[in-house]
Amino acid sequence: MNKVRIIGTGSYVPEKIVTNEELSCIVDTSDEWISSRTGIRERRISEGEDTSHMASKAALKAIENAGVKAEDIDLIILATATPDSFIPSTACIVQDNIKAINATCFDISAACSGFVYGIDIATQFIRTGSVKTALVIGAETLSKVLNWKDRNTCVLFGDGASAAVLKESDVEGILSIYRGSDGSKGKFLTCNAVPVKNPYIDSKETMGDIDNAITMDGKEIFKFGVKIIVQGVEELLKDTTYSLKDIKYIVPHQANFRIIESAAKRLGVSEEKFYLNLDKFGNTSAASVGIALDDMVQKNLLQSGDKILLIGFGGGLTYGGLIVEW
Ligand code: ACO
């Protein structure tokens, strides 16, 4: 089987910052409530940029950082819960935007596990020799599918995109893979369909009137998130000769600081082991793990040979993790 490495990352978030304070003007909430319950202080909200716009910008950065050309990309996998349209896929729109003319393109729906699922799928394609170079993107315009009158959900999410280029390599970069789904718990996090208009931007008066907004049972998702992080870390390490001490950072889905706090306690590690940037971006679903990863790369936190553990969990319910050697 061929070996696989992540050779470049990129991310993009919209310019508009919406603080907790600003949200307290449209729903009955406060900076104190949001930051103490979730760790989130602000998020980015798209003003007219669709998922494909943000995805294309993140993709171009990842391609540049990987030192490859768009024509070298054989496969584009785009994870999103908020595609621009049902047809064409957002992956095909991105292909055209970035001129990756030789790629086969498709979207996947795995909610907040999307980026990890995408890397997993791309890894399988490269291992079998079916493709040499793959682009994985996680991108969301969640502001379109939020009920901006529901304080239980609208304070948690943000918009953004992330991307990674994976390539066949002489050295193995994907050391362990963990994945699964539990459809029986699907009802705990739902979103029926993507509206044509963005209720945040298009009409402040009708912000809460969409019947296809995200719904969530926060307590069930909290329990699920903690369980998956703990179980995922244990399962991923089992397939290797490493222990948690050998892992430089755990890069989790950026949902909520308190989920991380509980998981860290159960794993017996410091919260510092987890890389978090949810204070700045909120929960960007399929984009979140990749935005955190690219943030780490930009801050020069990863050196060649470092081992990191990515872990995602989300609607479906879905979950997945990877141990990556940088
Ligand atoms: N501002 C002020 N008050 C609020 C807000 C808000 N934004 N949201 C809820 N409340 C109120 C509730 O109405 C409730 O009031 P009541 O007691 O008068 O009825 C009170 O706060 C407590 O509500 P709970 O739901 O019990 O609050 P909890 O402590 O469970 O915190 C939270 C809610 C933060 C969502 C928590 O359940 C959680 O962290 N869940 C994890 C889910 C998550 O992070 N999801 C992210 C998306 S899913 C994913 O990424 C996989």
TrEMBL record:
Protein localization? Cytoplasm
Which molecular-function annotation in GO is an example for this chain? beta-ketoacyl-acyl-carrier-protein synthase III activity
Q: Which CDD domains match?
A: KAS_III (cd00830)
Keywords carried by this UniProt record: Acyltransferase, Cytoplasm, Fatty acid biosynthesis, Fatty acid metabolism, Lipid biosynthesis, Lipid metabolism, Multifunctional enzyme, Transferase
In the UniProt record, does the keyword Lipid biosynthesis occur? yes
For the keyword Cytoplasm, the answer is: yes
E.C. numbers? 2.3.1.180
The pathway entry for this protein reads as:
Lipid metabolism; fatty acid biosynthesis
Which residue numbers delimit the Beta-ketoacyl-[acyl-carrier-protein] synthase III N-terminal domain?
106-183
Where does this protein chiefly localize? Answer: cytoplasm
Q: Quickly give the catalysed reaction.
A: malonyl-[ACP] + acetyl-CoA + H(+) = 3-oxobutanoyl-[ACP] + CO2 + CoA
Q: Name one Pfam family in it.
A: ACP_syn_III_C
Looking at the record, the residues that make up the Beta-ketoacyl-[acyl-carrier-protein] synthase III C-terminal domain are: 238-326
InterPro entries per the record? ACP_syn_III_C, ACP_syn_III_N, FabH, Thiolase-like
Location of the region described as ACP-binding in the Swiss-Prot/TrEMBL record? 254-258
Annotated Gene3D superfamilies: 3.40.47.10
Family, similarity comment: Belongs to the thiolase-like superfamily. FabH family.
NCBIfam families in UniProt: fabH, PRK09352.1
Functionally, this protein is described as follows:
Catalyzes the condensation reaction of fatty acid synthesis by the addition to an acyl acceptor of two carbons from malonyl-ACP. Catalyzes the first condensation reaction which initiates fatty acid synthesis and may therefore play a role in governing the total rate of fatty acid production. Possesses both acetoacetyl-ACP synthase and acetyl transacylase activities. Its substrate specificity determines the biosynthesis of branched-chain and/or straight-chain of fatty acids.
**How the protein assembles, per its UniProt entry?**
Homodimer.
Task: Give the domain section of the comments.
Answer: The last Arg residue of the ACP-binding site is essential for the weak association between ACP/AcpP and FabH.
What PANTHER family does the database record attribute to this sequence?
3-OXOACYL-[ACYL-CARRIER-PROTEIN] SYNTHASE 3, BETA-KETOACYL-[ACYL-CARRIER-PROTEIN] SYNTHASE III
What is the name of the protein in this document? Beta-ketoacyl-[acyl-carrier-protein] synthase III
Native species: Clostridium tanneri
- What gene is behind this protein? fabH
